[in-house]
Amino acid sequence: MLFTRESDYAIRIVRALKGGEQRNVDEICSLEEVPRAFCYKIMKKLGTAGIVDVARGAGGGYRLGRSLDDLTLYDIIAAIEPEFSVMECIHHFCSRNSGSNHCKVHRELLGIQSSVEKLLREKTLYDILEG
C-alpha cells in the first residue's frame, strides 16, 4: 500500500499551519515544497473535512480548523483518500468473495487494513510534531 503524493502534501500543509497562524498558499508551498496546483486542490478537501479554515479576500489565507491535539494522520489521509486501502479489493468487488465465503487473503488484508487504520489514529499531530 502506498499513500498518494496528495496525502503526503496534505500532511505537509498541516505541518505548515501547526503554529496556528494564517498563511497564504505561497507561504505554505514555499515552506513545505508543495506544488501550487496541488495545494489548492488539497486545501479544498481539507476545508471540506474541517481540518483547515479558509479566509477569503486580499488578506485571506488558511489556518488549522482543528487543534493538533484533536487531529491524527488518519483524519488527514481519510480527508484526501476516503477509501484508502492496502489493496483495492478491500473496498471494491472481489471475485473471490461470494456470500459468506471470503477469500483467505482478503480476510487477512482486512486485518492488516484495520491495524494500519489503528496505527494512524493512535497519535495526534501534536504528539508527532510537538511531543
List keywords for this structure.
131 residues; mainly alpha; two-stranded antiparallel sheet; 6 helices; elongated
Write the layout of secondary structure elements.
Layout (H helix, E strand, L loop, with lengths): L4 H12 L8 H8 L3 H13 L3 E4 L5 E4 L8 H8 L23 H19 L2 H5 L2
Antiparallel strand pairs: 1-2
Describe the protein.
By secondary structure, the protein is mainly alpha-helical. The protein is 50% helix and 6% strand. The protein has six helices and two strands; from the N terminus they run αααββααα. Strands 1-2 form a two-stranded antiparallel ribbon. β1 and β2 form a beta hairpin. α1 crosses α2. The protein starts with a helix and ends with a helix.
Characterize this entry briefly.
The chain is mainly α.
* Beta-strand percent range: 5-15%
Low-pLDDT regions:
none
Share of residues in helices: 40-55%
| Sheet of most strands | 2 strands, antiparallel
Termini separation (Å)?
Answer: 27 Å
Task: Determine Rg (CA atoms, Å).
Answer: 17 Å
Question: Any idea what the shape is?
Answer: elongated
